[in-house]
Structure formats: structure tokens, C-alpha cells
Design goal:
Layout: H1 5-21, H2 24-30, E1 36-39, E2 45-49, E3 52-56, E4 62-67, E5 70-71, E6 83-86, E7 95-100, E8 103-107, E9 111-118, E10 121-128, E11 134-139, E12 144-149, E13 155-157, E14 167-171, E15 175-180, E16 184-189, E17 192-200, E18 206-214, E19 226-232, E20 238-239, E21 245-253, E22 261-269, E23 274-281, E24 288-296, E25 302-312, E26 315-326, H3 341-353, E27 361-364, E28 373-381, E29 387-395, E30 401-406, H4 419-423, E31 427-431, H5 454-470, E32 475-485, H6 487-498, E33 504-508, H7 515-521, H8 526-535, H9 540-548, H10 552-555, E34 563-568, H11 576-585, E35 590-595, H12 605-619
Parallel strand pairs: 20-26, 30-31, 30-32, 32-33, 33-34, 34-35
Antiparallel strand pairs: 1-2, 2-3, 3-4, 4-5, 6-11, 7-8, 8-9, 9-10, 10-18, 11-17, 12-13, 12-14, 14-15, 15-18, 16-17, 19-21, 21-24, 22-23, 22-25, 25-26, 27-28, 28-29, 29-31
Length: 654
């Protein structure tokens, strides 16, 4: 993928002649007297400027950035090209051109990087035309010791993981680079600090600024030169009966030796109450790594937090924590099913199926439709005749196809066309289920009676959306699934329990599970119910009775279709115990994906991939192998939302 050497020599000659003859303003902008470009022996380019020396390899990537005598980038590891696009591995950009003096453009036809080499700055313009989102990385060299948030002034020893967009990386020599326009930094990746931009979607370009310089060597504090992380042996953050939590604590010290080092682990319950405490002395040598190990016995089934503190000389220096799930299969709180539960829902099902005098409207949106997927804006009548909207997406090729109903999270999140699922051969209906203008605290509206509770209408709306999907001729009625995050996950489980024709349900971090515990320990919006109970203690018995009609736990034993659930052990909204409780009551084929470091992010994009495979295996079994958790195409650790967020970790592990 190399360029023609003679052609580039000609380009450089033309550029030099251009700078020699162009007006002074243009030459000053290009900086020809201060920035020089020369061919390198390996077929790349060497760039010299007053504050830096850079090298672009023959693959079009920025492999080297030297400030003084200090190399700031590292292209030595097999996963690194210095500064580069990462999509299914590092991407070479083989075609190199010079559109203007001191400007280099590199592309492979899909991905493009344009470098503007200025006397004191390198500006990058990054874009791509791939259907898949991509990341852009800078891998910093091992000479870098400190990272500082250029906006807030926060400082930390590397490697560090933080949502910092503008960062100054400094080496012990005093050399530094300030990188602006990113999204986060993280590490270690094989011992290296990484700066990241993305995920980048196709289309508009993103701009990045790199400003090198040389100053005084940094004088970080002792704590800033330490990093602390906890590793669980064999991913033993999810533990069964009789198994202790085996934690390995890794200390990286980039400073002087520390006297009287100690590690302390405090095991806490979910609400912060101490359960047990262990400590051990640890020797922390100069510029070295130290390890401690703890075997922690857990008392009862539940979720625990292990808080780890590193001290020296009796002074706490660093702190971190991990979540532990112990004997979660035993979490089965007692059910409280009202005697007329079945009659209540039979009447509601009849209401939901009753013909409406209000028309259902499908209006094609040609601005969203493609040759492969047709997209309609949908409007239909919900409970009480209130108008609700959504999007229907269907493959243009002949059907029938499997159907998928996407129910929304809490609030009124805007329904979006699910063109990715439709592109995979599904007819997808994504709808709103809460009418416009509803109080944000609607979870606490109508609690005095199940017939007045707002979730009664939301359930009707969800059931009518299912019937709307089933009415489409493109849909194979024997292959229909329901999915959703948070509130949508809870509603998906309720709909699947009430409608046996649902062939599968995929509930991501489902809400509406185990109301008593959720209200007692969860966060907003459950706190709205807690606030109501505090203000109206005389209504407590009626409130608990109303909620029992809508608690997913009371539906779980009735659900017969295959179910996939996800849970984050750090989720403070949909408490993990409440999700485990719902899962443990499911009687049929079921599976749960547990994310020890996850919160209320619906898993991750890796979970979305797994969910798609899982749905394929049930609704399109002839064409689909069993699902497997994907190897990520990026070495990320934290999970985010289904809407194209970061992906799960792949090697090297963090």
C-alpha cells in the first residue's frame, strides 16, 4: 500500500517551488521556512518544525512525534501504528498526497487523515465512509509519566482512565504534547497510555490538535505517581456457593520507594454498611510493581462492594473498588400476587385488543428509507385515544420476516428508526408508550388504584403496539420478539408473559422488578414513589397493592418464551438484586449476561451484538449459529448504551 516514490518527489518539488513563489501571507501560513518535509528511507515522510520532529510512515500514519530528544508516541507494539484509525485492527492508510505545502493527506479509500504541519502544532482532520463506527487512537510512549486535564487542571500518573477531551501528556524530561478534541483516555494497553477519539460515524470530519512543547519536568505528588487496580481471578466477581472472592491488587509505583505500605479491603453491603475488613502489609519499591492478594468470604446471597485502599506511613494514597455478586441464583423474594391478578389483566388485554375508531397512520419517510430498508413514520391510538408515534422499518426484499417490538426506557425518549435490525432482516416497530406532556414523575401517578395507575395505560399502549406489528403483512406472526432497555425491558417481560405468541424476549437491565426493594434502595424515579409514601402514609397499603399488579416478579413465573436479560452490578437504578430476582422466577429457557463493571448502560455494544445473535438463533435458526460473546474490535473495558457506544474489552486485558 505504498505510494510512488518518484511521484512524491515531484509533489515535494512542486510544493517547494510553490512556497518559493507564493505571496508572503500564504507562505507564512504554510510556514515553509519553519516546517520542512523530506522523504525518509522507509518510503515515508520526515517532518521537522521548531518544536517537534514527526514521521509519517509509508502506511500514512503518524508513527513518531519527537519533542527534543523524547519520543512521545509508541509504534513498537504490534497493535500500534502511533496515531491511527482502529477498526478490526489498526488501519494502514496507503495512498499519500500533498494537496498543499505542509499538508499531507493519507487514505485507503474509506478512511482518511489530513495532517496540517504548523511550526508549533499539528492539526488532524479525520473522516471515514465505512458503515461501521471507528475509533482513532494515539498510543503514548513509556516516556510519558503524567497526564493533566487541560480544562480542569486535574493531574494523574499514567496509565489513567478518564473522560478527558483535552489532555497534556508530559514526560520526565519535560517534553509534552497537548492533545485537544478527543473523547477519553485509558490504559494500560500493554503498559501504554492511550488517547481516544470516537466512536466515529461516517460523514462529518473531526478535528484534532496536537501541540508539542518542552518545559520543566513535572513534579507530581506521591499519589499521582501511583496507580491501583483490582483483578479478580478467573473473572470471579460472580460467585457461587462455597466460593470466596479472590482479588489480586496491582500497584504501579513510578516514584520513590514508600515506607510502611499497607493494603486494606473493606467489604460493604450495597447500602455501604461494613461487612468485614482485611489488611496486609506490602513492600512498595522504587519504580516497581507490587501485588497483594485477598481471599474474601461472603456471608449471604447479594451484591457486595470491595473497597481497596493503599496507604503508606499511615496515610491513605489511592482507593478503588470492585463489585461482587454472591449466590445470586438464590435471590427469590416472596411473591405478593393479588387474588384478582388474572382477572385484572384479562380485562386489560380485552381493552387493548378492542378496535379503535381512531386510524393508524403509516407515512413513508423517503429521507430515511434506503434500497434495502423501507421506513415509515407511525401514529396510532393508545389508551384513552391518546395519539402515540413511532417508526416502522422493514426489509424491502419479500417476506414474511421476523418481527421485533422495541419498547422505550423511562421518560419520553424519542423513538428512533431501527434500521440496523431491519437491515438484518427484521420488521422493527419502535414506539413511544408515554403520551406527550406526561409528568416526568409519572411512576408515582395514580398509585391509589391499579385501575388509575399510569402504568395501566402504558401497558395498554405496549400491547397495542404489539398488535400493530403483528398486523403487518411483512411480519411472520410465529417469529415475533419484544425488547427494550430499563422500563422497556420490564414492559417487554410483562408483554411476553401476557401474550404467549411472543417467541422471544430480550430485556436489558429491566426496570419494574421487585418494587419493594427498588423503592427502598433504588434511585430516581423510584424515589418518587418513596416520596409519595412519606407524604401519604395512610395510603401505604393501597400503594403496595397497586404496585403488585405491575411488578415483573409476579409475571415472571407465567413467562414461557425464551428470555435474555442483562444486568450491571453497578446499576443504581435497576438494582442487580431486583433483576436477578425476576430472572430466577423465569421457568423456561433463559440466559442472563452479567456485567460486573456495568451500571445502567444496557450492557454495551458487545451485548447488543450478542443480543442480535441470540434473537437470530431463535427467530432465524436455520441461518444462525448459536450466539457467542464477540471478541471486541477495540480494547475498551467499559460498556455504554446500545446507541453505538464503546465496545467490550478484547486482548490485551485491562
Amino acid at each position: 500500500m505504498s505510494f510512488n516514490r518518484n511521484a512524491l518527489i515531484l509533489i515535494l518539488s512542486v510544493a517547494a517551488a510553490f512556497c518559493a513563489t507564493a505571496g508572503p501571507l500564504l507562505c507564512a501560513a504554510a510556514g515553509p521556512s519553519e516546517v520542512s518535509l523530506q522523504l525518509s528511507p522507509d518510503g515515508g515522510l520526515e517532518i521537522s518544525a521548531p518544536s517537534y520532529h514527526a514521521r509519517i510512515g509509508s502506511d500514512g500514519n503518524l508513527h513518531s512525534l519527537r519533542v527534543g530528544e523524547t519520543e512521545m508516541l509508541d509504534d513498537n507494539p504490534p497493535f500500534s501504528l502511533g496515531a491511527f484509525f482502529y477498526s478490526e485492527g489498526p488501519r494502514p492508510l496507503g495512498k499519500i498526497t500533498l494537496p498543499a505545502p505542509s499538508v499531507v493527506r493519507a487514505t485507503d479509500g474509506l478512511y482518511a487523515a489530513e495532517y496540517y504541519f504548523l511550526p508549533g502544532e499539528i492539526r488532524l482532520t479525520l473522516s471515514h465512509a465505512s458503515e461501521k463506527k471507528s475509533l482513532f487512537y494515539l498510543v503514548l510512549s513509556e516516556a510519558v509519566t503524567v497526564a493533566a486535564n487541560s480544562r480542569t487542571g486535574e493531574v494523574a500518573a499514567v496509565p489513567i482512565e478518564a473522560r478527558w477531551s483535552d489532555v497534556t501528556f508530559t514526560a520526565s524530561s519535560g517534553a509534552y504534547v497537548t492533545v485537544r478534541g478527543g473523547d477519553r483516555i485509558w490504559g494500560p494497553w500493554d503498559g501504554r497510555q492511550v488517547w481516544e477519539l470516537g466512536p466515529l460515524a461516517a460523514g462529518p470530519a473531526r478535528e484534532v490538535s496536537i501541540s508539542p512543547g518542552l518545559g520543566q519536568p513535572p513534579k507530581p505528588t506521591t499519589a499521582q505517581l501511583l496507580s491501583l487496580r483490582v483483578e479478580s481471578a478467573d473473572n470471579q466477581q460472580v460467585l457461587g456457593l462455597g466460593r470466596s472472592a479472590q482479588l489480586s491488587v496491582v500497584i504501579e509505583n513510578r516514584g520513590e520507594a514508600l515506607a510502611d505500605g499497607a493494603l486494606t479491603v473493606v467489604l460493604k453491603g450495597w447500602q455501604g454498611e461494613p461487612v468485614s475488613e482485611l489488611s496486609q502489609e506490602i513492600a512498595i519499591g522504587e519504580k516497581s510493581q507490587a501485588r497483594g492478594r485477598f481471599d474474601i468470604s461472603l456471608p449471604d446471597p447479594g451484591i457486595y462492594l470491595a473497597q481497596v485502599t493503599l496507604s503508606a506511613g499511615g496515610r491513605p494514597l489511592k482507593e478503588t473498588a470492585v463489585m461482587l455478586a454472591y449466590r445470586w441464583e438464590e435471590i427469590r423474594p416472596a411473591l405478593s400476587i393479588p387474588p384478582d391478578f388474572d382477572a385484572f389483566w384479562a380485562a386489560l388485554l380485552a381493552e387493548a385488543r378492542a378496535p379503535s375508531s381512531e386510524p393508524t397512520e403509516f407515512v413513508e419517510d423517503e429521507s430515511v428509507s434506503t434500497a434495502q430498508v423501507k421506513v415509515w413514520k407511525v401514529s396510532f391510538a393508545g389508551a384513552g385515544g391518546k395519539r402515540l408515534s413511532g417508526w416502522l422499518c422493514a426489509p424491502t426484499r419479500p417476506g414474511p420476516h421476523p418481527g421485533l417490538l422495541q419498547l422505550p426506557g423511562y421518560g419520553r425518549p424519542k423513538a428512533e428508526p431501527q434500521v440496523v435490525f431491519a437491515g438484518r432482516g427484521y420488521v422493527v416497530l419502535a414506539v413511544e408508550v408515554v403520551e406527550e406532556g406526561s409528568d416526568p414523575a409519572y411512576i408515582a401517578r395514580g398509585l391509589e388504584s391499579p385501575k388509575e395507575y399510569l402504568y395501566r395505560g402504558i401497558a395498554v399502549n405496549s400491547l397495542r403496539a404489539l398488535d400493530l406489528l403483528l398486523s403487518r403483512e411483512e411480519v411472520d406472526r410465529q417469529r415475533v420478539a419484544v425488547t427494550g432497555p430499563g422500563q422497556g425491558g420490564g414492559l417487554a417481560l410483562i408483554v411476553a408473559a401476557l401474550r404467549p405468541e411472543v417467541a422471544a424476549v430480550a430485556a436489558d437491565v429491566p426496570m419494574l422488578c421487585d418494587f419493594p426493594r427498588s423503592i427502598r434502595e433504588g434511585m430516581w424515579p423510584y424515589t418518587e414513589i418513596a416520596r409519595y409514601l412519606q407524604s401519604h402514609p395512610e395510603e401505604e397499603a393501597r400503594v403496595w397493592r397497586t404496585l403488585s399488579y405491575f411488578d415483573v416478579l409476579n409475571f415472571a413465573p407465567r413467562l414461557q418464551s425464551p428470555a435474555l436479560l442483562s444486568v450491571g452490578l453497578r446499576d443504581t437504578l435497576c438494582r442487580p438484586e431486583t433483576v436477578f430476582a425476576a430472572y430466577n422466577y423465569l421457568p423456561g429457557r433463559k440466559e442472563i449476561k452479567i456485567y460486573p463493571a456495568g451500571g445502567h448502560e444496557e450492557g454495551s455494544s458487545a451485548h447488543l451484538i450478542y443480543k442480535r445473535q441470540w434473537l437470530d438463533s431463535i427467530l432465524k435458526p436455520a441461518a444462525s449459529p448459536p450466539p457467542v460473546m464477540p471478541e471486541a474490535d477495540s480494547p475498551r473495558r467499559t460498556g455504554e448504551s446500545e446507541q453505538g457506544g464503546p465496545v467490550e474489552p478484547s486482548a490485551p486485558a485491562q
